Amino acid sequence: MTGHGRAGGHVVIASDKFKGSLTAAEVAEHVAAGLGPRVRTVAVPVADGGDGTVDAVVSRGLTRVRVEVPGPTGEPVTAAYAWRPAAPDGDGPVAVIELAEASGLRRLPAGPAPLTASSHGTGVLIGHALRRGARRIVLGLGGSACTDGGAGMLQALGVRLLDEAGRDLPPGGAALRRLARIDVSGLRAGAEVVVASDVDNPLLGPHGAAAVYGPQKGASPADVAVLEEGLSRFARVAARTVGEGDGVPYAERPGAGAAGGVGFAAMAFLGARIEPGIRYLLGVLGFDALLDGARLVITGEGSLDEQTLRGKAPAGVAEAAGRRGVPVIAVCGRRTLDDDRLRAAGIRAAYALTDLEPDPDVCIAHAGPLLERLAARIAATEPELRT
């Protein structure tokens, strides 16, 4: 859908979820309702590779494929990925796989398991897509429960991780301390793999997967040391097995630490390249074409803060819209960025639920109606909507 000239054109609503209260699609619905029937809108729910990525691309016409897989601690869960069949231009079938669907924190049945949580279920999803004929796997990393370096994912794809006695290692990052040999003879691959992630951390060290993200997954300082030791050993044995590639070693590359080190395994063993999550997924969603004739873009997420500026969805949307000269405003639950920081990121103005209701708990419980009131204020305030 396109408008006819900027003044009479449509408004693109391209927000991420409001975590804990509204999905990206629900944000778009409430914003559209608040803007009123006179404003033509195009909804394009977005995500940056984390929670909600599959929902976002399914909303743009991809098919949801459900698969029963092991969750991060082994219990069966029903996870989904998005499927796009071969395109008329010859581009082969594409599967968009969200790690959080199979191996995310929300899939933990009984609280954190920092030492034993596994990415195995994500590997099962990849294997399912490969058997279906996928020629490209888009792997969204974010919200993971595991710090296993992607070991479980690789095991699900036929890689054997063996101890000194030739026994397969059990799940989790702690077990990697006993890794002696990696057997890749059974690896099932065959598709281009693109990792969509907004994380630029390396695998190891003070900015690595265990040190930075381990505590978010329930790891104590002692657990972080155990996980760091396991990941370090994994990196050394992997280097002996598959080499380091050209230039920077895999473990040191930006994004190797994503999702507890799944980024590392994807690059070293699956030949993946890492792309900024929101930038790549906007391409999958056909975002640029939706800007034709648009008069305004409304983006957003639950919290506009320092993390927003590190490649989160609103920053990516603002960058893409800015290249086309389409103004951008944002909606959010709360914000900690001042107007100057937002403008530097290409966001002209931001409207927060806390502008209407200072109690965060009330904002979460009544996010939909509050967002409609906020959108009505936008319709009355923003110049593009008063013409």
Short description:
Pfam families: Gly_kinase. Belongs to the glycerate kinase type-1 family. This protein has 14 helices and 13 strands.
Question: What features would you describe in this structure?
Answer:
The chain is an alpha/beta fold and 387 residues long. The chain has 2 domains: 11-46 and 296-385, Glycerate kinase, domain 1 (Rossmann fold); 53-278, Alpha-Beta Complex (Glycerate kinase, domain 2), CATH 3.90.1510. Helices cover 33% and strands 19% of the residues. It is built from 14 helices and 13 strands. The chain has helices at 24-35, 53-58, 99-103, 120-131, 151-156, 209-213, 221-242, 262-270, 277-284, 287-290, 313-323, 339-344, 360-365, 367-381; strands at 11-15, 41-43, 63-70, 76-84, 94-98, 136-140, 160-162, 181-183, 192-197, 273-276, 296-304, 328-335, 349-352. The strands form 3 sheets. It has a 6-stranded mixed beta sheet. Helix 11 links the parallel strand 11 (296-304) and strand 12 (328-335). The protein is globular. Mean pLDDT is 94; it is low at 1-5. It comes from Thermopolyspora flexuosa. Keywords: Kinase, Transferase.
Q: Kindly provide the name of the CATH class of the largest domain.
A: Alpha Beta
Query: Per the principal axes of the C-alpha atoms, what is the gross shape?
Result: globular
Number of helices: 14
Mean pLDDT score: 94
CATH topology of the largest domain: Glycerate kinase, domain 2
User: What is the percent of helical residues?
Assistant: 25-40%
Protein structure class: alpha/beta
Number of strands: 13
The CATH level-2 architecture of the largest domain is identified as Alpha-Beta Complex
Write down the secondary-structure element order.
Answer: EHEHEEEHHEHEEEHHHEHHEHEHEHH
Pfam family, one: Gly_kinase
Protein name: Glycerate kinase
Organism: Thermopolyspora flexuosa
Family: Belongs to the glycerate kinase type-1 family.
